[in-house]
From TrEMBL:
Catalytic reactions of this protein: 7-aminomethyl-7-carbaguanine + guanosine(34) in tRNA = 7-aminomethyl-7-carbaguanosine(34) in tRNA + guanine
A Pfam family the protein falls into: TGT
InterPro entries associated with the record: ArchSynthase1/Queuine_TRR, TGT, TGT-like_sf, tRNA_ribo_trans-like
Highest classification ranks of the organism: Bacteria, Pseudomonadati, Thermodesulfobacteriota, Desulfuromonadia, Desulfuromonadales
Pathway: tRNA modification; tRNA-queuosine biosynthesis
Organism: Trichloromonas acetexigens
Assembly: Homodimer. Within each dimer, one monomer is responsible for RNA recognition and catalysis, while the other monomer binds to the replacement base PreQ1.
Keywords tagged on the record: Glycosyltransferase, Metal-binding, Queuosine biosynthesis, Transferase, tRNA processing, Zinc
Name of this protein: Queuine tRNA-ribosyltransferase
Length: 371
């Protein structure tokens, strides 16, 4: 029997303030989950993640299957012990990584046959094996196996893929061993077609899941189209279950997603951008590599109270980046993830106080390129 539950605490328009109860602790929503693909959030200590307010992180089934192997992780005490993280972990199913392999994979009704990007070895990932791998890892929220549909794609392909993902979702539900207490989330597909999204939701509701994710977004479509799909899909999902949009996104995406009723997000954007010298701030984003910061003694963001902004100048951060120092990635990542966590906390407060639309208007008005 799953020990997972969700409380919907406040609503402000379609924005929702909730609370996830997992076997490894409570998660306040809306929430952003840092991505720890290979059992690590790049350039961050687990203890530092806690300090900046991270409540739950994401790890990846595909990568951990290939290295070090899920059975090895199980033998070493499970993913939480392996990476020294005692808070909840969500594992994605591997579907997106398989989608990104292109010609290295072949999809059929059984599952996906693919070649490892590491050594070319052949593997098969099915709904049943994806669930078994995630259970071996010790995930607290397990994702159903699906195909992430590319964009653009023909309606015929989208319809065929979406129907297959629904059949795979039913197999995932049947394969689950619920006695370990983890939750299982279904993933809505359907591309950019309103009727196919609605059919996917109906299929998943008939199967029954503890939560529902929306996949197949942020795959090349415009932000306007992404928001349109959210507008179609969120009202179809159960009010008393958590709603998760996968792989999204920018700070603006998070605010607009919350406005449309999304509870959970993940994305590599804050960590990947940090390693490339791009920093998120209350006034937009800046590229710390630019020459204009060479002698700039000010912090990244004067309105930010993170450790980095309290102790380091833009000039020093630019020097670290230009020198290719490891500390550059560490400090930049710390700041970006702190910014994302504080953004979510501010949205939770705004929803509780019934001022979300005011918050959104002020947030958007403050976005500009230069400080």
């Amino acid at each position: 029997m799953t020990s997972f539950s969700f409380d919907l605490l406040h609503e402000d328009g379609r924005a929702r303030r909730g609370r996830l109860h997992t076997r490894r602790g409570v998660v306040e929503t809306p929430v952003f989950m840092p991505v720890g693909t290979q059992a690590t959030v790049k350039a961050m200590y687990p203890e530092t993640l806690k300090e900046i307010g991270a409540q739950i992180i994401l790890a990846n089934t595909y990568h951990l299957l290939l290295r070090p192997g899920h059975e090895r992780v199980r033998a070493l005490g499970g993913l939480h012990r392996f990476m020294n993280w005692d808070r909840p972990i969500l594992t994605d199913s591997g579907g997106f990584q398989v989608f990104s392999l292109g010609e290295l994979r072949k999809i059929d009704e059984q599952g996906v046959r693919f070649q490892s990007h590491l050594d070319g070895a052949a593997h098969v990932l099915t709904p049943e094996s994806s669930i078994a791998i995630q259970e071996a890892l010790g995930s607290d929220i397990i994702m159903a196996f699906d195909e992430c549909i590319p964009y653009p794609a023909t309606r015929e392909y989208v319809a065929e893929s979406t129907a297959r993902s629904s059949r795979w979702a039913a197999r995932c539900r049947q394969a689950r061993q619920p006695e370990d207490g983890a939750a299982l989330f279904g993933i809505v597909q359907g591309g950019m077609h309103r009727d196919l999204r609605a059919q996917s939701v109906a299929d998943l509701l008939a199967i029954g899941f503890e939560g529902y994710a929306v996949g197949g977004l942020s795959v090349g479509e415009s932000a306007e189209l992404m928001y349109e799909v959210m507008d179609w899909t969120m009202p179809l999902l159960p009010r008393d279950c958590p709603r998760y949009v996968m792989g999204v996104g920018t700070p603006e995406n998070l605010v607009e997603g919350v406005r449309r009723g999304v509870d959970m997000f993940d994305c590599v954007m804050p960590t990947r951008n940090a390693r490339n010298g791009v920093l998120f701030t209350s006034f937009g984003k800046i590229s710390i590599k630019q020459a204009r910061f060479l002698d700039d003694e000010s912090p990244i963001d004067p309105d930010c109270d993170c450790y980095v902004c309290r102790h380091y100048s833009r000039a020093y951060l630019r020097h670290l980046y230009q020198s290719n120092e490891i500390l550059s990635s560490m400090l930049n990542t710390h700041h970006n993830l702190h910014y994302y966590q504080q953004l979510m906390a501010r949205m939770r407060d705004a929803i509780e106080s019934g001022t979300f639309e005011t918050f959104r208007a002020e947030f958007l008005a403050a976005r500009r390129i230069d400080p």
